[in-house]
Amino acid sequence: MACILPQTKSAAVNPLKSSQPLGAALAYLGVDGAIPLFHGSQGCTSFALVLFVRHFKEAIPLQTTAMDAVATILGGAGNLEEALLNIKTRAKPKLIGICTTALVETRGENFEGDLVNIKLERAEELAGTEVVLASTPDFDGAIEEGWAKAVTSMIEGITTPGGRPRDLKKIAILPGWHLTVADIELLRETVESFGLKPVILPDVSGSLDGTVPDDRWVPTTYGGTKVEEIRELGTCFQAVAIGEHMRTAAAALQAKTGVPYVLFEQLVGLKAIDRFMTMLAMIAGNPVPPAVRRRRAQLQDALLDGHFYFGGKRIAIAAEPDHLFQLATFFKGMGAEIVAAVSTTGTSCILQKVPADAVQVGDLSDLETMARHAGGDLIVTHSHGRQAAERLGVPLMRVGFPIFDRLGSQHKKTILYEGARNFLFEAANIFQSNCRRPSPEALNPLQDMEAKNDGRQTSFTRH
Q1: Segment holding 135, helix H or strand E
Q2: How many CA atoms lie within 13 A of 296 on its CB side?
Q3: Which residue, 172, 140, 167, is CA-closest to 154?
Q4: What is the pLDDT of residue 26?
Q5: Beta carbons within 10 angstroms of residue 287's beta carbon
Q6: Residues forming a β-bridge with 225
Q7: What tens digit of pLDDT does each residue of 338-383 get?
Q8: The predicted structure's pLDDT at residue 205
Q9: All domains of the chain in start order, with CATH
Q10: Is 354:324 a contact under the CB 8 Å cutoff?
Q11: CA distance 134 to 148
């Protein structure tokens, strides 16, 4: 069990985490015809927009209530109402997802009450558009918490409550924020290969996969989970949550509709993937498809071929709690040692399961210090860790968010048999390309003894 070390610094030297509202907005972007709305100042929204655009290289429909000094003092209910009506009139979205920021959270406004009043008073103008709200202050949590709160808000605000007739072939999948566009596409294809019908919430693979509409401008998200599918989640036979932070959303779905859920902490280890495939086969009542069996055999061969490059390697990782657990579990399973583990927050219970002696809640400067002290062979974090890797002279493996200095990061598969194999190859190739070949002198077992003898002879000569 890892020891959780709390953050002790009063300021982040090289920030690791991104804010809760950014994570919530990312979840809302996975719904078809949606627009995330930041309830705060324009500056809060612009920073998140820059990160999104640099990471995905796509147009991001992100809006703001544009709180000014007067609204901050007197209250932002008027700005919120005006923003909702303007967005509805101009973009006609199917969903508006409100993400609160530190500016309005610090003032302590009653957002839920304001939204209820706006919906009642402006019911006719807002007809046809679902409006949900997630309380996501910047000063607490990070992407992981914001994503989970947004998914929970959509389930609680849109899904039809009560027991419903269930489709035995329909399953709800609640992916964690750390799954890439390619991961979610792979999830869908795998579930469908068993003859099942997946409903993925949120589905960023449909909205942030680089697809461009033909001959028209779409002011909202284009693709993703449909609002009607969210409303009908109660007809699913089973729900699957991926990542500990999705437990709250899965529990909310079960409490509202009675749909049971199963939680997978990660889908990169062979045992975990086998468990996932076995569950799908049991629900479908069909054997595992030959194509999936072939992918498993390919992963086994890759594990055999690649484990030579991981043995004894010292890995330093900085990521969100569930992503940190997934990455550390993979490297530990390959025979590497986790010498530095840094997370954004210390509230997730998954951190205790990270295969490391301790998990430091901190920033990238903490990662750099720990890696320098322990002598790391590989830095694993997002693009903001590149300066630390350069100073240490250690290669960087880019994962998570944001990755803005490489193309195609969202199209990398990192889970299930195929994704685990690709991730293994990428890490092994980094080790190969940065291999430090020993010199003939270093291979001489008598080198140290000869050096000591030379030193003694020199001292005798002086006397």
Answers
A1: none
A2: 18
A3: 172
A4: 97
A5: 10
A6: 31
A7: 999 999 999 999 999 999 999 999 999 999 999 999 999 999 999 9
A8: 92
A9: 3-8+302-433 (3.40.50.1980), 20-140 (3.40.50.1980), 167-208+219-288 (3.40.50.1980)
A10: yes
A11: 9
